UniProtKB/TrEMBL annotation:
Coarse class of the protein's main subcellular location: membrane
Keyword Nucleus: no
Molecular functions per Gene Ontology: sucrose:proton symporter activity
Keyword field: Membrane, Transmembrane, Transmembrane helix, Transport
Protein name in the entry: Major facilitator superfamily (MFS) profile domain-containing protein
Cell compartments where the protein resides: Membrane
Membrane topology designation: Multi-pass membrane protein
PANTHER family tied to this protein: SOLUTE CARRIER FAMILY 45 MEMBER 3 ISOFORM X1, SUGAR TRANSPORTER
Record's keyword annotation contains Membrane: yes
Superkingdom as given in the UniProt entry: Eukaryota
InterPro entries: MFS_trans_sf
GO cellular component, one term: membrane
Amino acid sequence: MAMFLLVGGGGLLLLAYADRIGVWFGDVGGQQRNALSMAVMGLILSQVGLDGIQCMERGLCTDTLDADALQGVNAFFALQGSLGRVVGFGLGAANLGKAPGLSYLGDQIQILFLLSAFLLFLTTSTTLLTAREKRFIPQLYELFNASVTSSGKRALFGLKSLPKAVRLAAVSNLLAWSSFALLFYYGSYFYGSFIYGGDPEDTGVIDSIYERGVQSASFGFLLMAVVGSMMSLGLGFVTAKVGIKTMWVSTLAFAAATFLGFFFLRPGDRGAALALSACLGLPLAASYQCPWAIVTVAVRRSENSALYCSLFRSLSEVLPFALQGLIGSALLSVFQGSARSVFAAASVLMAAAAVHTYFFVLDVQDVEEYEEEI
């Protein structure tokens, strides 16, 4: 986990100072080719670091806790994910450049990434210092035999041998997180250009209409995170009554309807856009708990549990963010820059996730019975 902390923190620092590093490497005037390269590298490193940390935490919990405790941990992960978004989107909505004691760190973006790096170090270090797990120390010959090729073969074997319940849950989760990826990457553009009617070319203009729309989007995402935090507190109780699968299907269908609501908004519907953003807090919180409740039960008895958790997250939660650029760019190109088309696609993807979950995904009880039969 320490390695992922260094990678993720380094990526955030690259994002914070990409423009300055670009100047050091020869960027002159309006040419920012090197700065763009640094920003892309920082984005990749930060994503790898953050995803790696979460995979390690999931694997740690799966290896050290029993099935009953795992359900509580999944609910706790949902709560923590929502609280993290409260902090992140809250900082994004605030004018950090005018905050006392922070202005010397740089502009709004630089301050935001620096604070993110500090919080990442603080929270992950707490886990590293307090968590206790029996460490595996390989023999010398194993270190010599370890290679990128063998690691790749191990990951490929893990992919082929994923339990049935994990594969089915991964498909639904992939579709759901593809919708959320479109929201997180194009939501600010939707608010700034469509709801507020601003010009994206004015991103460098202080207090422009488009920038106010982007800040409003951060506030909408903040509301979504707050609602998600509150919903996370009651998810464990509700799922115990209605079942994990029923809860997941219901929230996916609700999210599909909410995304469709964005499509029918008109320019200037600021209050309605914020309300719809807040409504997405419930399905977002459920997406942190419901699929993982199924996966952790399915892999808890396997010696490859950490690998399975890592593969599940990589395939169903990380891959959508890697692919969203292709999907979103294609939609914007076909529909001539209409941001509403992105939300229509998100609604279709979320509806497909609900249908697949209803007909194919195994519930927690079914997973346990399937394990016993094996």
